[in-house]
Write a structure and sequence with these properties.
1134 residues; mainly beta; five-stranded mixed β-sheet; 93 strands
């Protein structure tokens, strides 16, 4: 049956039929009543709709939606509101969401929808009349694109907005197989951190949390769709920019499946790159193990960038599809030995390494770097034999080592540490592996009995970190394995931080008030020392804050000392505490003086990145009402810890407004109001609230412990601030505010407690928002504009009961054309500070001045203009807003803390081995900075073992260990001196032959004669004069490479005596040509037979030519083969 239609708010008049037939009239009237009962009330967009509701009434209106994916804003035309939602024929065809505080109705498909309004709060018999209008809602220029994608093209750049329930779809057409879509996302800032996700064709959603380039991988040329989704239906709008670029894939595309895998011949390299989310690169190789046997192969992944490596995962599959190697993540040069037991094609799958949670993808870091893959035959343990330190395998730090560490086996590796204070990181899947680390110098001096600098057993397959003080050659010894399985071990080096040379109190890093210092706890033997000064003057407390920058694992110890402790005047440290993950906040009442703080690892789990900052704050001691600290009306008060504050005496009926600013952080705790008897009067966790004084008297605030970040780079320390004032207004706010686009500022808003629950915010621009929880006003992310923000008591305009306050907000990118700096001193002394000010016209906006120092090692500057002198020299401080800049030059003079400008002292060596009774060894101390003059004092902790003169000469006396220290001012540097028993010195070295002949490809171990036989240290260094002809190992093994001559030189470590031997390399003998005459005939067969019965002895070269059947023996079988070849009965001897 066709249904009638009528318009909302209008009476539908059906003309009466004319005629005189009563029966026909009655029939028509009956039909009309049936039709009227089945009518729908239709509404249209931009039309005011009125509904009269009762407590059990749900009124339905019908709306034709002309476009897929349309969203509609509910614009209430009446003071009264109610519940409203939209529904379609299917459950998921429509939705009701919240965007920036407004109700938005959305649909998936065009068609007819039901809009339902109701109010369950009405009591029996009550009615409510509401009026509303539905307006098409577009939060950016691409809408509506929730369902129908916006078409993009290579090189396009757009802005987009996501809010509650919004999704933006985009489509782009590729022209080549395997192209990647590069999306460059911008718009994230400290004030705008809302994240979103990119949903790709496989339904994985890539989380976007920061500015950067995000890659999506495509297959065959065609049209591809991706979707941007607001995170968790957050009601706040996020505005971002996006540019699009199509990038060609590598030469192997499309090889995204095992069916399209690229063939990888054994021993050859192929270059590949991982293009983006959804990309996989498959390679296949042919394995040929003998029936019933296994064969070893080695997979190599090469060409990783050391500074910005690609994060790759790989898997290997057998011909029958079973997994040979499960998911393995790598980010540096990698080798993996594995066994193949099936004949046929094995497949290698490579894909980006990322973290999956449900359908969301996190931590994607795709560089599209060109990498290489290679599969080689063989493997076993490629580093054997490396069972002694003399045979240690040299490795490049960072490469993955695939090795076998069976029971009783020992693996030695050596590597070069290029700079001081690097951190060794060892990770392995070999359970219970025993790890020992040695310096090359110690092993050279003492051999394997040398003392290890690290001796550690893995309780489980985790990570090991150890700080290495000096650069040089290091050895690592691994043992304790228990199986024949292939272990994967990585030995890598972590570069030192900028302040790493602060591992003792006299090299402590100076801290400056409010300036954040970043640092690492990089290993269990690492410690960081810091120094700060509490100046003379009124007694103050020190707020010390240490924050975690990147998550680590483990406990840290903190020890606080007065300088008097190191002068022998204090018996112990003044404070000690510990903290899990490093973060801690402490407030101490300290007397004027110099203080030292040590931070060290107690139970180390992983590297910790931390920051430290301090601030001198007034001593309040306000932990009771009786000891409350006074607040000054209308003046912001910084609050550092839990305590009571007095707001003074007030009369009954006065309204007191309380405001707190936590820097865009939503308050987590209530502020409480008490009277003089301790009775609670009011409380709130909002940024701004008010209360009415119940009776004459003095009132107090209890401010909770704050929990907001304190340490931010180049930002002053300011946790929370609070203020109060009295007023008689129903509602009030700042008249005008000037802002930057997308900037957030704290808004001065006040109101009476009676209208708090009815307080309503209305904005001329929906992108201009106010958050009542934080108290912050946020400007739209557009180049410029202005709008009014209206705060009211909820009554509609025109109602005489309406009370409102209007804030006129203006925002612009270029609000300033000129700026200057005042209060800038011409010079500062090291450690002193000054507060600079940016001067502009009174009407100009100056909130966000950008401050920069040309040399932070001389002057550091905070975002509020505070500068501190940290080193001698000259630096330029620049203040800027937009294109307007101003600069001043400040010279830093005066001495560094310490003696005569001294900042440190170092030694040329930190370990030294001597032998009793031998000549003195010179240690050299260097003062920092270069050219500093100070007295150096030398001491030896064990003068029985060795003494030291005041010019640094160490004289060994008897076997033992002593610490030789060079001290200057407050700084120290020490060298551990080990004195060995008196040794027998080397007096010479020789070879027993002047020359030796080798065939190409053969080896020989040289064994020179060292005199005397009982010399204590017989270690040698080896050099080949022509490594193209032959090389020599650290143990004297010579390998012949090409025809020619080279000289091998052996030099004793003790005494530096040298001997030489000439190596003559000849061409490899032809198989079967035993006599070397260039022919293979009966004469060669005769030599084989004579050698087989012991009549002659063949040279090694002749033996290699005579063993033609390769059985390791020279006998009649070899002679017969030679004769058959000579008679042309067989084609070759190979």
């Amino acid at each position: 049956m066709a249904r009638g239609r009528k318009r909302a708010g209008k009476r539908w008049r059906r003309p009466l039929l004319c005629g005189g037939v009563l029966l026909l009239t009655l029939l028509l009237l009956l039909c009309a009543s049936v039709l009227a009962a089945d009518e729908k009330t239709y509404i249209e967009l931009d039309e005011t709709v009125e509904a009269v509701l009762t407590n059990s009434d749900r009124m339905n209106f019908y709306l034709d939606i002309p476009v897929d994916g349309m969203r509609m804003l509910v614009d209430w035309q009446s003071e009264e509101t109610c519940n409203i939602y939209i529904s379609g024929k299917t459950h998921d065809s429509a939705n009701t969401t919240n965007a920036d505080g407004n109700t938005v109705l959305g649909v998936q498909k065009a068609g007819e929808y039901t809009v339902t309004v109701y109010d369950n709060s009405l009591k029996q018999g009550e009615t409510r009349t509401v009026r509303f209008m539905l307006r098409e809602y577009k939060n950016d220029a691409q809408e509506p694109n929730d369902v129908t994608p916006t078409e993009l093209h290579d090189g396009d750049a757009i802005s987009f907005t996501l809010d509650g329930g919004d999704r933006d779809q985009f489509a782009i057409t590729t022209t080549k197989p395997g192209q990647d879509i590069a999306l460059t996302i911008g718009g994230f800032s400290y004030a705008s951190r809302g994240r979103f996700d990119i949903q790709w064709q496989n339904n994985d959603s890539l989380i976007v949390e920061k500015n950067g380039v995000y890659y999506l991988h495509t297959g065959q040329p065609g049209r591809y769709i991706f979707t941007l989704n607001g995170w968790n239906n957050d009601s706040l709008s996020i505005r971002r920019t996006m540019s699009v670029q199509l990038l060609d894939g590598d030469n192997h595309e499309l090889n995204d499946t095992v069916q399209t895998a690229t063939s990888l011949p054994i021993g050859t390299d192929e270059t590949f790159s991982l293009g983006g989310l959804g990309d996989e690169d498959w390679f296949c190789f042919e394995a040929a193990p003998e029936d019933g046997q296994t064969k070893l192969y080695t997979l190599r992944l090469l060409d990783f960038d050391l500074e910005n490596p690609e994060n790759v995962c790989y898997e290997i599959y057998a011909p029958d599809g079973t997994v040979v190697i499960s998911e393995t993540a790598v980010s540096s040069r990698h080798a993996r030995v594995f066994s193949c037991s099936q004949q046929g094609q094995y497949a290698v799958r490579l894909y980006p390494n990322c973290r999956h949670e449900y359908n969301y993808v996190y931590d994607v870091s795709i560089q599209r770097a060109a990498l290489r893959i290679r599969v080689e035959e063989g493997g076993d343990d490629p580093y054997e034999s490396n069972d002694t330190w003399l045979d240690a395998a040299y490795i490049e730090p960072g490469q993955l080592i695939s090795h076998v560490l069976s029971s009783g086996d020992t693996d030695w590796f050596c590597f070069t540490v290029p700079e001081d204070h690097m951190t060794l990181h060892v990770s392995s899947d070999c359970v219970r592996m025993h790890t020992m680390v040695y310096t090359g110098q110690d092993l050279t001096e003492y051999g394997e009995p040398a003392r290890a600098i690290l001796d550690e057993v893995y309780a489980s397959a985790t990570n090991l970190y150890w700080k290495l003080d000096e650069k040089g050659l290091y050895y690592i010894k691994l043992d304790g394995g228990s199986s024949e399985k292939i272990c994967s071990t990585t030995i890598s080096l972590i570069p030192p931080e900028a302040i790493e040379d602060n591992d003792t109190w006299y090299r402590a890093t100076p801290l400056y008030e409010e300036f954040t210092q970043a640092f690492d706890i990089s290993a269990e033997n690492d410690s960081e020392w810091f120094r700060f000064t509490v100046p003379q003057g009124s007694q103050k407390a020190v707020l010390l804050n240490i924050s975690e920058i990147e998550s680590g694992r483990g406990w840290s110890d903190f020890s606080l000392y007065r300088k008097a402790y190191f002068d022998g005047q204090d018996d112990e440290r003044i404070q000690w505490w510990d903290s899990f993950l490093g973060s801690t906040k402490k407030t101490y009442e300290l007397e004027p003086g110099i203080y030292y703080l040590e931070v060290s690892a107690r139970s180390f789990g992983d590297r910790q990145k931390l920051s430290i900052c301090y601030k001198l704050v007034p001593q309040l001691n306000n932990d009771t009402i009786a000891a409350s600290a006074p607040l000054t009306e209308k003046v912001w008060q910084d609050v550092w810890q839990d305590g009571y504050f007095s707001i003074g005496e007030h009369k009954a009926g006065e309204v007191v407004q309380i405001q707190r600013d936590e820097g865009e952080n939503e308050p987590k705790n209530n502020i409480y109001v008490y009277d003089a008897d301790g009775k609670s009067i009011a409380s709130s966790d909002y940024a701004s609230f008010s209360f009415r004084i119940p009776a004459d008297g003095v009132y107090y605030l209890r401010i909770p412990e704050f929990d907001v970040p304190l340490n931010a780079e180049n930002e002053p320390m300011r946790p929370i601030r609070i203020r109060y004032y009295t007023h008689n207004d129903e509602i009030g706010a700042a008249d005008t505010i000037t802002m930057l686009p997308n900037e957030s500022v704290f808004l001065d808003l006040w109101f009476s407690p009676e209208i708090r629950n009815s307080l309503k915010v209305e904005s001329e621009d929906e992108a201009l928002t106010y958050d009542s929880k934080t108290g912050y006003l946020t400007a739209p992310n557009t180049p410029e504009g202005s709008a009014d923000l209206v705060f009211s008591n909820g009554y509609p305009e025109g109602d005489e009961r309406r009370i409102e306050a209007v804030v006129h907000v203006t925002w612009s990118e270029k609000l300033l054309s000129d700026i200057s700096i005042s209060n800038a001193p011409q010079s500062l002394t090291v450690g002193s500070s000054a507060m600079l000010e940016a001067n502009v016209d009174a009407d100009s906006y100056i909130k966000y001045v950008s401050w920069k120092s040309s040399d932070p090692s001389v002057l550091r500057v905070l975002s509020n203009g505070k500068v501190v002198a940290v080193g001698q020299g000259e630096a330029v401080i620049t203040a800027s807003i937009g294109e307007a800049t101003s600069s001043v030059t400040i010279t830093v003079t005066g001495e560094q803390p310490g003696e005569s400008g001294l900042t440190g002292v170092s030694l040329d060596r930190y370990t030294l081995t001597l032998y009793a009774g031998e000549e003195a060894e010179q240690l050299t101390a260097t003062l920092k900075p270069e050219g500093t003059e100070a007295t150096i004092r030398w001491t030896s902790s064990n003068q029985t073992a060795a003494t030291v003169s005041q010019d640094g000469k160490v004289t060994p006396l008897a076997a033992g260990v002593t610490v030789v220290t060079a001290a200057a001012g407050d700084y120290r540097a020490s060298c551990i001196v080990t004195v060995q028993p008196e040794r027998v010195r080397v007096t010479g070295i020789r070879f027993d032959e002047p020359t030796h002949t080798l065939m190409m490809g053969s080896t020989v171990t040289l064994q020179p004669i060292i005199a005397p036989d009982d010399a204590t240290v017989k270690n040698l260094t080896w050099v080949s004069s022509d490594e193209q002809t032959a090389t020599v190992s650290r143990t004297g093994i010579v390998t012949a490479l090409s025809v020619g001559e080279t000289t091998i030189t052996a030099t004793t470590v003790d005494g530096g005596y040298s001997a030489e031997i000439k190596i003559i390399v000849t061409a490899a003998a032809q198989l079967g040509d035993v006599n070397g005459d260039g022919y293979i005939d009966a004469a060669d067969a005769l030599l084989c037979l004579r050698a087989s019965v012991g009549l002659i002895t063949l040279t090694p070269e002749q033996e290699a030519a005579a063993d033609v059947n390769h059985d390791g023996l020279i006998d009649a079988g070899d002679a017969i083969l030679i004769l058959r070849y000579d008679a042309r009965l067989i084609p070759s001897l190979n």
